[in-house]
Amino acid sequence: MTISSLMIINKAGGLIYQKGFASTPSKLDSNEYLVLAGTFHGVHTISTRIAPVPSSGIEVIEASTFKLHCFQTQTGTKFIMTTDPEHSRVELHLKKIYEIYSDYVMKNPFYTPEMPIRCELFDVNVLRYIKGVNESP
């Protein structure tokens, strides 16, 4: 079971963090990640309006080779994780990443909300957590 990548999208739909964890390099460049984030934000927003019952938006997109999971916070920030199709307990992992984000980004006095995340402690702790998840049996 593998977590392939993590993206964080601000409430306006801008990509503020992206990191890949797969052993093979990503086939997307930085501009394509920006387009992906904006597109997902738009589709997520539309899905809340067209749902027949009240909805918080897209939570999982399943494909034959991966799953894309989304956790939206109360402030509108979206944490998006791609995993292999068999990966379970992803919501738990997304909430742990959100906890790391809260501790190392939001409590950082030098971080401006809604701007790209440039925090070494956040990177180190996310990498440590994902590495632990990916290496566990």
Automatic annotation (TrEMBL):
<dbReference type="GO" id="GO:0005783">
    <property type="term" value="C:endoplasmic reticulum"/>
</dbReference>
<protein>
    <recommendedName>
        <fullName>Trafficking protein particle complex subunit</fullName>
    </recommendedName>
</protein>
<comment type="similarity">
    <text>Belongs to the TRAPP small subunits family. TRAPPC4 subfamily.</text>
</comment>
<dbReference type="GO" id="GO:0030008">
    <property type="term" value="C:TRAPP complex"/>
</dbReference>
<keyword id="KW-0333">Golgi apparatus</keyword>
<keyword id="KW-0813">Transport</keyword>
<dbReference type="GO" id="GO:0005794">
    <property type="term" value="C:Golgi apparatus"/>
</dbReference>
<dbReference type="InterPro" id="IPR007233">
    <property type="entry name" value="TRAPPC"/>
</dbReference>
<keyword id="KW-0256">Endoplasmic reticulum</keyword>
<dbReference type="GO" id="GO:0006888">
    <property type="term" value="P:endoplasmic reticulum to Golgi vesicle-mediated transport"/>
</dbReference>
<dbReference type="InterPro" id="IPR011012">
    <property type="entry name" value="Longin-like_dom_sf"/>
</dbReference>
<dbReference type="Pfam" id="PF04099">
    <property type="entry name" value="Sybindin"/>
</dbReference>
<comment type="subunit">
    <text>Part of the multisubunit transport protein particle (TRAPP) complex.</text>
</comment>
<keyword id="KW-0931">ER-Golgi transport</keyword>
